[in-house]
């Protein structure tokens, strides 16, 4: 099942269009600093990692002088909107702390292009919105797991679609931290799969899950499934 429509739909619905406004006032380029960051999602390299970026963005917005912090869709840039009364000293301190998280401040043409992109208000995510990236990641991983199962066993279309929906929900809750907040142990991938797969197919799934974990740990590349 092609998941491109999922990414497009979620981006359209949830990407915040007002990154260039603060309390109804325009944000000017001189109040924006941009940083190159390694926050691409290992399992879905076309988007940023919501789980990895969220604590960084939240921490930035707790810093003195910071009004807003945003991640671009690709997970390669963070934009910081400074408060009007921020000083060079406070900006320098925040920049130094972000550098410890491997954030490199952009200058010159790279800065100008990124700031212009940010001020356009397109494809940038606030801390409260990066869960949308995690939801996309969940859909991408779920589709890949089902693809791997189907490659090694016969799976009816209705079962494949139901399995993908179930996987997406489990992964979404895990990647957004929702499952960690539940009092009881939430069902895992193998648990929900039992409704759709027999024992032999469950074995195939478990190997697929190991392969997926290897991708997320950087031990193997994302496969080309086209």
Task: Describe the protein's architecture and organization.
It is a single chain. The protein has 226 residues and is α+β, with helices and mostly antiparallel strands. It folds into 2 domains: 31-129, 2-Layer Sandwich (Alpha-Beta Plaits), CATH 3.30.70.100; 132-216, no CATH class. It contains 8 helices and 9 strands. The protein has helices at residues 4-14, 50-61, 88-100, 108-119, 131-152, 157-175, 189-193, 199-216, and strands at residues 21-22, 25-26, 32-36, 40-41, 44-48, 66-72, 77-82, 104-105, 124-126. The strands form 3 sheets. The chain has a 5-stranded antiparallel sheet, sandwiched between helices. Strand 6 and strand 7 (77-82) form a beta hairpin. The model is unreliable at 1-18 (pLDDT under 50).
Give the number of domains: 2
What CATH calls the topology of the largest domain is Alpha-Beta Plaits
In the CATH classification, which architecture of the largest domain applies? Answer: 2-Layer Sandwich
The biggest sheet amounts to: 5 strands, antiparallel
Write the layout of secondary structure elements.
Layout: H1 4-14, E1 21-22, E2 25-26, E3 32-36, E4 40-41, E5 44-48, H2 50-61, E6 66-72, E7 77-82, H3 88-100, E8 104-105, H4 108-119, E9 124-126, H5 131-152, H6 157-175, H7 189-193, H8 199-216
